[in-house]
Amino acid sequence: MKQLGWQSPEEALGNEIDFEIGDVKLAFGPIVGVVKDYHQESLRNTIDPTIMVFEPIWLRTFLVKLDTEHIQETITKISATWDEMFPNYPIEYHFLDDLYEALYKNDRIQLQLLYLLSGLAIVIAFIGLFGLIAYSLKTRVKEIAIRKVVGSNTAALISLISKEYILMMIFAAIIAIPISYYFVNSWLETFAYKVEISFIWYLFSLIIIGFTALFIISIQTIKAASVNPAEILRNE
Fold first, then answer.
1. Is the pTM of this model over 0.70?
2. Can you give the three-state secondary structure of the chain, one letter per residue?
3. Residue 8, φ and ψ in degrees, nearest 5
4. What is the distance between the alpha carbons of residues 227 and 137, in angstroms, rounded to a whole number?
């Protein structure tokens, strides 16, 4: 409507238009209604200007609303009517929800793989972190024992041990976040309509990972600090 120069449906109604598709001259007629813009393709595409016409050369294609409780019975009747009206053209039918589903099938597969691989990477990373902290504390049991003897409490030990891992996590985030932003933004650029990436979600993820890492460090440090320092120093 707007592309043809009208600003409102009331202004467009009743006006006659005609147009061509290639070499085909289509019948002209009055505008009898205006509908809101809607997506008839993937969100990778913009909403195209659309004209709905009653044109005899296109009467081999129909959109039928079905009762979902009797789909097979209805399809059988439609097929019989089709064969009677168009015996030279075998019927081909598709369900609208399946067509829309196919628009995003590849994206859904990619997202499912991304969720799976990301989840697997996170689990492996935390298992590695757990093992790394356990090994690090095992090699520092004498240091922990001496610090306890001179007055360090468990909270101070947790702060000491966690500091290097938190700094390591921040350094990793500085590398990973720009790379992630670039690839996610590149994927979103393939869509005509898209959300904007907010760094709040990166910060939120970083906080969750930080607290999880701090929890693992605290458990391991408390376990290591619970050993009697006298026994450790005597054995060492």
1. no
2. CCCCCCCCHHHHCCCEECCEECCEECCCEECCCCCCCCCCCCCCCCCCCCCCCCCHHHCCCCCCCCCHHHHHHHHHHHHHHHHHHCCCCCCCCCCHHHHHHHHCHHHHHHHHHHHHHHHHHHHHHHHHHHHHHHHHHHHCHHHHHHHHHCCCCHHHHHHHHHHHHHHHHHHHHHHHHHHHHHHHHHHHCCCCCCCCCCHHHHHHHHHHHHHHHHHHHHHHHHHHHCCCHHHHHHHC
3. -150, 155
4. 12
Report whether pLDDT(184) > 70: yes
Buried residues in 199-231 as b, exposed as e (16+ CB within 10 A) = eeebeeebeebbeebbebbbebbeebbeeebee
Of 211, 206, 227, 225, nearest to 158 by C-alpha is 225
pLDDT above 70: residue 154: yes
How far, in Å, are 27, 118, 202, 213, 214 from residue 210 at the CA level? 67, 17, 12, 5, 6
Residue 232, pLDDT score: 65
b (16+ CB within 10 A) / e for 66-82: eeeeeeeeeeeeeeeeb
**Over 80: is that where the pLDDT of 108 sits?**
yes
Residue type at 122 in one-letter notation:
I
Q: What percent of the chain has pLDDT over 70?
A: 91
